[in-house]
Amino acid sequence: MVNIDQYLQEKRGIINAALLKQLPDQAPSSLSDAMRYSLEAGGKRLRPILTIAAAETISEIDDSIVNLACALEYIHTYSLIHDDLPAMDDSNLRRGVPTCHCVYGDAMAILAGDALLTLAFATVACYGQMEGNATKAAEIATQLSEAAGMNGMIGGQVLDLEAEGKDLTVQEVERISELKTGALLRASVICGGIAAGAAESELGKLKIYADNIGTAFQIIDDLLDCEGTTEELGKPTGADLEKAKATYPALLGTVKAREKAIELYEKSIIAVKELKYDTEILEGIARKIIERKS
Amino acid sequence: MVNIDQYLQEKRGIINAALLKQLPDQAPSSLSDAMRYSLEAGGKRLRPILTIAAAETISEIDDSIVNLACALEYIHTYSLIHDDLPAMDDSNLRRGVPTCHCVYGDAMAILAGDALLTLAFATVACYGQMEGNATKAAEIATQLSEAAGMNGMIGGQVLDLEAEGKDLTVQEVERISELKTGALLRASVICGGIAAGAAESELGKLKIYADNIGTAFQIIDDLLDCEGTTEELGKPTGADLEKAKATYPALLGTVKAREKAIELYEKSIIAVKELKYDTEILEGIARKIIERKS
User: Fold this and answer.
1) Could you give phi then psi for residue B88, rounded to 5 degrees?
2) Is the dihedral of CA B219, B220, B221, B224 positive or negative?
3) Of A106, A111, A119, which is closest to B158 when you measure between CB atoms?
4) Is the residue at B294 inside a domain?
5) Total number of domains in chain B
6) pTM (two decimals)
7) For A72-131, what is each residue's pLDDT tens digit?
8) Which among A80, A150, A175, A184 is the top mutation candidate for probing chain B, defined by the most B β-carbons within 10 Å of its own β-carbon?
């Protein structure tokens, strides 16, 4: 029986090292300082861990997959930096520390975000230049750019900005959540599967797993925003309610929202159990997602 | 003898159509409107034309190279949108029309830029998923991400922001110009060469050509900023002098700066003439770069 906390901690350490190792050091120091600051500000590293865990579930992995997995965290971190800007969500605190623009100014935060997004695709390109990886890299870059782009994360952020103060249906909230959060979480799992050479039918099961944990993750996020404290979360809480953002708890109530998260968790477990591999790690990660307190 | 003006006009038409065709239409309409607005605001399409011209010089090309070439214009357009933001250069006019953030607001301009950068890599990934292109796509994505990233265009923008009001040497001005403008122009040429299957030695000659026209392009840009009118250029002029930005004309004087541009043009011609192909188009483009009035 795997100790999932130990697994997550170990992978987090490996990813943290790889994240910084791939930052080129010739760049202007103010820029790499800003990038490093946001990367080092912590975070659960859920996305690259999912990439590695999905890959490990399918086959043995090497360092190239750890490096590739960093692309997911670069994209996630860039999106946080840009979302926090005064022109966007205007947040001063993230992961328990002042946000990038509060420390480095708006211009540098915009550029640090741009550079992290670019670095994500440089990382995939680097993976693709290794023997035998080119075709997989093209598929991974397609998945990543779809998940991050105008019909994925960026599209979701636009809908979210436009939804402020409006009454939304559950379907509309689900759509925003799927685009803002679900798309990149799903890509994290799928990219790991592709890198490990998963068959089409296996990718299908990984996709169902990822879709369900993606929505569950967002529901728990919303619940923590209602119920958690700033100290626990490392970012201001109650912000969604204050801005009248439509969230699952706001629409369904906290009890029904939590029930929905558990239901989605169970669906993710059923999907992943259909794989012919040992899926204990992927199941453990799903469980941690609905049990998390921050 | 090729009519270079006719060539440029024809390619511009082909590129303009391809640029919009690759914008996915499911995205939130406000986002795709902002992206389309900046793409349609005009521009010489120099970068994708260089990609196509370099590829055509080496071998026969098909539509996949035209689509690929759009990646260069997506990156260029994203960089203009972000550079124009109030937090950066704070420009209200670009290509003769109000800048993206003036029309769509800062948040949407940030997201439209992010989406165009992502679309650039989606475009390369799509090219890479076509039969026989995967290895070339990995090389192209590497070139593009280096040219656009923290050691290329973004790094140059950081140095440029940090240089305002400081006295720079010619070497420092050259370094900023090489990063901000030269890197992406060079990548435009190189990516076309890679897509057309150019040999390493041929890519070397294309690189020298591109390096020289890249710097020449920047010198002419600076000269136009000193000498041109807002009407001719479609953007405010004299802005560099006002901000005490170190430019070639400011450092060398306009006469010596123009002489340097011509010298670089001549070097670019020598390099490209060493290729065993008909290089009339590439030579014509170099000539247009130093003759341009806007």
Assistant:
1) -110, -110
2) positive
3) A111
4) no
5) 1
6) 0.94
7) 999 999 999 999 999 999 999 987 899 999 999 999 999 999 999 999 999 999 999 999
8) A150
A111/B28 touch (CB, cutoff 8 Å), yes or no: no
Instruction: Tell me the pLDDT tens digit for each residue of A22-62.
Output: 998 788 899 999 999 999 997 899 999 999 999 999 999 99
Closest CA in chain A for residue B111: A154
Q: Is position B70 within any domain?
A: yes
| Domain containing residue B147: CATH number | 1.10.600.10
Sign of CA dihedral B253, B255, B259, B264: positive
- Residues B271, B209 contacting (CB under 8 angstroms): yes
In order of A107, B114, B276, the CA distances from A110 in angstroms are 5, 10, 44
List chain B residues with CB under 8 Å of A28: 150, 155, 158-159, 162
Does residue B216 lie in a domain region?
yes
State whether the Cα torsion A191-A192-A197-A202 is positive or negative.
Answer: negative
Residue A293 in any domain: the answer is no
A4 touches A288 (CB < 8 A): yes
Cβ-defined contact of B148 to A118 (cutoff 8 Å): yes
**Domain of residue B187, residue span:** 4-287
Our CA-based measurement puts residue B191 at a distance from the nearest CA of chain A, in whole angstroms, of: 14
